[in-house]
């Protein structure tokens, strides 16, 4: 049993890559919405389970956004800026996620 619990926890940490911390994300955190960068293949259900497991909160809804890759040109060199996926997670009233703890 303990082996399965560790496997699930590892999957949760791989689905959530990092919290998306910008001016806009701190503004919407007042409304119990938090933004995360997630794996490109992650579904809304996977994101919901991962956030609930890692942060011990109740998730009301998940909205996902896939940002496509973009072409970048520098002189004659042509390259691509990688695309990514992010998720906006709405929490139950009263729940909160603290990214920065005051010590």
How many β-strands, per DSSP? 6
CATH class: Alpha Beta
Integer count of domains: 1
Largest sheet, spatial ordering of strands: 1-2-6-3
- Count of DSSP H/I helices: 3
- CATH homology superfamily name: RRM (RNA recognition motif) domain
Major beta sheet, specifics?
A: 4 strands, antiparallel
CATH topology: Alpha-Beta Plaits
Principal-axis shape: elongated
Radius of gyration computed on alpha carbons: 16 Å
Oligomeric state of the chains in view: single chain
Overall average pLDDT: 88
Report strand %. 35-45%
Distance between the termini: 36 Å
Query: Helical percent range?
Result: 25-40%
What is the string of SSEs from the N terminus onward? HEHEHEEEE
Short characterization:
The chain is an alpha+beta fold. The chain has helices at residues 2-15, 23-28, 44-55; strands spanning 16-19, 33-38, 59-67, 70-74, 77-81, 84-91.
């Amino acid at each position: 049993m303990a082996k399965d619990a560790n496997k699930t926890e590892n999957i949760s940490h791989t689905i959530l890559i990092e919290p998306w911390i910008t001016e806009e994300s701190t503004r919407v955190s007042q409304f119990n919405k938090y933004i995360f960068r997630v794996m490109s293949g992650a579904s809304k259900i996977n994101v919901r389970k991962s956030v609930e497991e890692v942060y011990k909160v109740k998730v009301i809804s998940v909205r996902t956004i896939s940002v496509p890759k973009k072409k970048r040109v520098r002189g004659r060199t042509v390259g691509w800026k990688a695309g990514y996926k992010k998720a906006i997670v709405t929490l139950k009233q009263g729940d909160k996620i603290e990214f920065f703890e005051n010590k």
